[in-house]
Amino acid sequence: MKLMVDARYTRIGFHDGISRYTASLLGALKDLMDSGAPEVADLQLVMVISDERQLQMLPDLPHVKICSPTGPLEPTAALQLNKYKPDVVFSPMQTIGSVGRTFKLVLTLHDLIYYDHPTPPGFLPAPVRAGWRLFHKSYTPQRMLLNRADAVVTVSESTARLIREHRLTEKPLHVVPNAPQPGSVVSEDEALRRAKSRAEGASRHLVYMGSFMPYKNVETLLYAMRELPGYTLHLLSKMPDARRAELADQGLLSPLAAGSNVVVHNGVSDEEYAELLESAHALVTASRAEGYGLPVVEAQAAGCPAVISDIDIFREIAPHAVFAPVTEDPQADAPAWVEAIRSLEDDTVRDRVILEGLQDASRYSWRDSALKLVRVMKGLQETL
Question: For the domain 188-362, what is the CATH superfamily, name and number?
Fold first, then answer.
């Protein structure tokens, strides 16, 4: 079976959620092939890129180059791929051009966040952002996209349930979840050693890894920091200038509002991220919606407690985390977040959350997700 994986959403220099999802699945598939796993004995794997620089973020696999997924030639993507004679094409998005395709197609819908929170990612070109807003005014365009496929993948049972509730596709729906990176789940002894070492430190560090889109609700965390002397909040991702100005105008990033206990890193390497998780009192995220929430599982895998919003997806992927409420009033929610974060100052509570968090994270692996994807592909191949 010749499987082509659309890796054109791979970011250059750093991963975002979809970029890491693609690269991790490709890496796991390559590991299965290299180890001689019988499930992939007949698999021929080829990556599809749109920029040679993407290869720096991807495993060493054969690749072909076609148009940008956000460019004017995207409607012809299938015609460009036909000449390579794939049996199946898997895309980690749902927007790949499919007109005239001669192969089976599997599309991915990660979440339905933008129907309730329609602001598009800022890195997209202006015409694409305008189309994004129009697209999310109705479920009809989504149905049209997904029903072009032969199968649809999503990353969590929570999102799968929403897809079914809104009847977004008539095609088979499969869950291929995110996972922590291979080998990143530490032992119980190591997790408790890290916790003891953190407790001996002079200050307590909180880590936030994620975008600064409005639905991520970083405001609640910043309000909570006003009541957490002795704590430092590390905002790890790159923050757009406009968003930073907005938070400053609200008095949430000014030294007078939060003291000196908020650090904006504007991007960190994977190595820096791992070091911060090792030293952090907790990972915190007050998001109002998620498709999965990979940083939560990554933190649990590193033996770092997670203090997270009480939403369905987080109850699914991290049932033993510490939960706090989120409403439309971040300032009113802040005291409950202070209480949740401070609950980890109790060593008994902290150790229980850490050990149960390791169990949560161990339920997911990229190997298992890759095998689930292979089963989806083989099911389609049987219909060729």
Answer: Glycogen Phosphorylase B; (3.40.50.2000)
